Amino acid sequence: MTIYYTLTFFLLAAEMGTFCIILAPLPFMMRKRMLTFLSTNFVVAKIAYGLKISFIFIAILFIDAIQRMWRIVAEGEASKKDGSPVHDVRTETNLAARKFYAQRNTYLTGFCLFLSLLLTRTFYILLDHLHTQEEYAKLKKQMATSSKEKIANGDGAGAAGGNDVVALKKRVAELEAKERDFETLKKQSRQQAEEYDRLARELNKSTGGSVDKKY
C-alpha cells in the first residue's frame, strides 16, 4: 500500500477513535470540557484546517480509485466477452489483485470521507445539545430565583397586611372605647339632671316657690 493510502488508513483509524470517544457515556462536566476544548482551542483549529485540505486530496483519491475499479472491471468483462482463454495464470491473478486493490482503495477513501462528514455533524449536534442544556440550566435557575423572590415578596406583603389589620383593629377598639365613654358620660349627665329635678321639686315644696331648672 502506497504512503498516501497508508496515511488515509491512519486517518480513518483516528476518526474511528475520535468518534468512539465523543459518543462515549461521559459525565456532563467532562463532556463539556472536552467539547469546549475542541471547539475553542487554537491548535485544534489549525489541525482541523489541515484535515480539511487533506480531505480534498482524499476525495481526489476516491474518484481515482473508482475510475480504476471501473476500468479493471471493464477489462475483465471484455476478456470474458472475447472468449479468449487465459494463457497465463499469473495474468488472471494479476487482474484479480488489481481489482482487489482498486476496491480496497475505493472503500478506504470512501469510508474516510463518509466518516469525516459523520464525525463533523455529530460533533456540532453534541455541541448544540450542550449549549441547550446550559441554557435550560440557566433558565431553571432563573425561574427558581424568581419564585423565591415572589415568595419573599408575598411574605413581606402578608406581614405588611397583617400589620395593617392589627392597626385597624386597634383603631376600632379605641373608637369603641370612646363610644362607651360617651355613653357613660351621657348616662351620668341624665342621672345628674334627674337628681337636679328631684332636688328642685323638693326645694319648691319646702319653700313654696318656684325654681328655674337650668341644665
TrEMBL record:
<feature type="domain" description="BAP29/BAP31 transmembrane">
    <location>
        <begin position="1"/>
        <end position="138"/>
    </location>
</feature>
<keyword id="KW-0472">Membrane</keyword>
<dbReference type="InterPro" id="IPR041672">
    <property type="entry name" value="Bap31/Bap29_C"/>
</dbReference>
<keyword id="KW-0653">Protein transport</keyword>
<feature type="transmembrane region" description="Helical">
    <location>
        <begin position="107"/>
        <end position="127"/>
    </location>
</feature>
<feature type="transmembrane region" description="Helical">
    <location>
        <begin position="42"/>
        <end position="63"/>
    </location>
</feature>
<dbReference type="InterPro" id="IPR008417">
    <property type="entry name" value="BAP29/BAP31"/>
</dbReference>
<keyword id="KW-0175">Coiled coil</keyword>
<keyword id="KW-0812">Transmembrane</keyword>
<feature type="transmembrane region" description="Helical">
    <location>
        <begin position="7"/>
        <end position="30"/>
    </location>
</feature>
<comment type="function">
    <text>May play a role in anterograde transport of membrane proteins from the endoplasmic reticulum to the Golgi.</text>
</comment>
<dbReference type="GO" id="GO:0005789">
    <property type="term" value="C:endoplasmic reticulum membrane"/>
</dbReference>
<dbReference type="GO" id="GO:0006888">
    <property type="term" value="P:endoplasmic reticulum to Golgi vesicle-mediated transport"/>
</dbReference>
<keyword id="KW-0256">Endoplasmic reticulum</keyword>
<keyword id="KW-0931">ER-Golgi transport</keyword>
<feature type="compositionally biased region" description="Basic and acidic residues">
    <location>
        <begin position="183"/>
        <end position="204"/>
    </location>
</feature>
<keyword id="KW-0675">Receptor</keyword>
<dbReference type="Pfam" id="PF18035">
    <property type="entry name" value="Bap31_Bap29_C"/>
</dbReference>
<keyword id="KW-0813">Transport</keyword>
<dbReference type="GO" id="GO:0070973">
    <property type="term" value="P:protein localization to endoplasmic reticulum exit site"/>
</dbReference>
<dbReference type="Pfam" id="PF05529">
    <property type="entry name" value="Bap31"/>
</dbReference>
<protein>
    <recommendedName>
        <fullName>Endoplasmic reticulum transmembrane protein</fullName>
    </recommendedName>
</protein>
<keyword id="KW-1133">Transmembrane helix</keyword>
<feature type="region of interest" description="Disordered">
    <location>
        <begin position="183"/>
        <end position="215"/>
    </location>
</feature>
<dbReference type="GO" id="GO:0006886">
    <property type="term" value="P:intracellular protein transport"/>
</dbReference>
<comment type="similarity">
    <text>Belongs to the BCAP29/BCAP31 family.</text>
</comment>
<feature type="domain" description="Bap31/Bap29 cytoplasmic coiled-coil">
    <location>
        <begin position="165"/>
        <end position="214"/>
    </location>
</feature>
<dbReference type="InterPro" id="IPR040463">
    <property type="entry name" value="BAP29/BAP31_N"/>
</dbReference>
